[in-house]
Structures are given as structure tokens and as C-alpha cells.
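job 3f2a | input accepted
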Amino acid sequence: MATISRENIGLLNDRLIVKVDQGDYLPNFEKELKQLSKQSNMPGFRKGMVPTGLIKKMDGPAIFTREVVKSVEKELNEYLKNEHLNLLKEPIPESMDSFHTDMNKPEEYQFNFEIGLMPEINMTLLDNGFHFTRYKITSDEKDLDEEVKRLQKRAGERKEKEEIMADEDILKLQFQAADAEGKLIEGAEIKEESIILSYFSPEKSKSLLGKKAGYSEPVTLKDAFEEQEATWIAQDWKLEPEKAANQYYLMTLQKIEEIIPKELSEDFYNEIYPGSEIKTEEEFRKRIREDDEAHWNHESDKRLDLDIFEKLVHETPVELPEEFLKKWLKQQGKELKTEEEVAQSYPQFEHDTRWSLISGKIMRDNQIEVSADELRHTFRHRISSYLGLNPHDETNERMEGFVNSMMENEKTVNETYSQILTTKLFDFLRNKAEIEEKEITASEFIKLPHNHHHEH
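job 3f2a | predicted structure (456 res):
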């Protein structure tokens, strides 16, 4: 008769010791042999008349081991169900590599499993110290001036120049792999790029001033460009950045251009905002301000949600069975992770686990759920935006046909369910929070520090 005992081996970490004897697995082993005997089709025997002894000799060891394991899994699952254990992850079997069976010597077998248990979570943080700052973003005149200039350049015309004279000059260049003296490597592919002078390193930018079309010199990406620009170029060429950085290329200047900014006019305003009927610079700047502030206030809302998320994860007391989770993480994937891989991925994994437990607790305690009607409502609005239908017309057979089809798509339902649930969760959290509004400019908002980390 099977027995299961339980012992504590660490914080929220227990070991289950499962023992099974002959009576737990042998009847099913013999039944399986007889079943296979009836089903087997083997030369020299009529179908269904293959001797059980022959089946046992050929396939018995594998069947025996399988039935032992199945009896263990059955006992373990029944135990977990009957004991109502709140497990953090799936049980981890111990020492399976050393497990051996012998069908000719049926005996008692022991299997050990480690389990991680759900921690108790106290959400007092929601009622004490749940304070945040939401930033109301305004555009100052300097920001507006820069945006107007950027739009003028975007709509402007390119004009060829005789020589390089300014940081914003556009250089049309050819690159071919070469040696340090500029001698081309045989068969080197020509790569063309249009690059603004300011993307070069300060030293290289200065040395290129005054150069004309036809000028060439050997360069490495590492020396010619700032690190980020060199990485972008290498990726554009589908090369490994580190390898490409030290390769010499013969850089040849083909053309120099400058952008002549578009003049402020009604035509320009309507080119940027078609159909807006903007007539004056004042109206144009007002529209830019509105769009800019709408964009940055959307970013501010995202920052607020991230601040709420991080505060909950880092300031809610949550005890976790770290050693158990690292063992569990090590076994995820097709191959076992190395200790180094586990150490590298564990902080983010722990961060995500904390959020999963905390958000689940909040949603359960406050009945935050998503109904089938809410899913259908979301799908109607999604379809109406594509087809121009009335999202509130539930009598539209075409609309309902699309909705029914989406409701039958498991992936679509799961993704949409998760989106709605997240929205409802953060709506609840913002309502619980004490939020102070602070007015700052977009430039100031960009410079705000991000106090997000993965240590607890």
C-alpha cells in the first residue's frame, strides 16, 4: 500500500516522500502485458495470440518502469488534492537519474519530491503609504521652437553642397572592407549609407570639415563613430557589432547635401496636418503643443503605472522559497540550465513571480474579473473600428458572426482577457492610490530618474 510522508526542508519548502509497493503497480503491469498480447501483430503468431511471456521479455522492463512511475504520480496527485496544498510551482522530483527497477524483483520503491508553498501576502501597503506623483507635462516655448524646426526640416528639400561645412550636413558614403592602408579586400561588398556629420565621433567630424565629394580614407567603425551609431551601422549591415567595429573600411564620400527648411506657410501647415485648415503660425504652434502634450501625458500615465507596479513588487513583504525556485528554474526548457544561467535569470524571474502573486492576491480580494460579456464588448469595438459598424448594435448578424469567431479563438481570447484584466487592475490601483499632480516640461520629464531595480 502506498504511503506519503512530508517533511520541512526550508522556508516554504517541503519534501514529499512517496513509497509504492507491489500492490500499487503490479496489477496494472500484468494487465498491460495481457492487453499488449491481444493487440500485438508478430510474425509466426496469429494476431492477438502472442504469448504474454514473449511480450514481457521484449517490452516488460519499459512497461514495468512506466507502471511504477504512473502509480507514484497517481498517489502524489491524490495527496496534493486531498491535502489542499497551495503550491507555488510544480513538484520537483529528486534523484530520478539513480532510479532503477527490476521487473523480476518487484519491491517497494521510494520517490522524493520537493514542493514550494504559496506565501501569505499582506496587502496593508494599499492603505498605508501608497503615494505617487503623476506628472502633468507642458510644452515650453523652447520645446515648441525645436519641434517647429524639426518639422520644417522634415518637410524641407535636400540641396547638394560642394564641401562639408556643418554638423547637420548629410554625407552619402560608400564603405568597402579594406586593410589599414585602404587597400580593398578582393570581392569586398559595397555598402552605402547616408549619415549626418554629427553622428561621427567629435574628432572625425572635425577632420571631415572642408572635404569634398571623392574624398576617401580607411576607417574603423569604432574610431569613426560614437558607440551607438557604430552599433546601428553594423546591425544595418547584418554584422556582429563587436566584429565589425575593428574591421577597416575604405570610406568614400560621394555626395554632400544640406536640408533647406520649409518656409512657414499655409501649405506647410496643411502638409504636416492634412485637412486641419491651419492658417497661422500661432494655430500651428497650438496644434503642435496639443499633440506634444497628449503624447507626453500618455507617457506620464505609463510611468505612473510602472511606479505603482514597482512599489508593489519591492515594498510588499513576500517570502519566497528561493532555493526551490532556483531548482525549478534550472529545469525549465529543453536542457538543464547551468548555475550561471540560473543566477543570471533568477532576479527577473523572482521579480515576475512576486508580481504574479501580489496581483493575483489583489484581484482575488477585490473580485477583479473579466466576464464573457466584457470580452464580447471589447471584440465589438475592435471590429467596429475596422468595419465602421455600430459597436452597440447586438442585432447586427455580421458583427455578431465576427464576435463569435473571435470568442472561439483561444489565443485571441486569452490575450484580450489578459489586456482587460490588466486595465481593470491598474484602474483599481490608481483609485486606491494617493496621487499628487506635478506640472513639469517635457524636457524635465525625460530627465527624471528611473528608480526601478530587481533586488528585494
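job 3f2a | Residues 40 and 48 are 6 Å apart (CA to CA).
job 3f2a | closed
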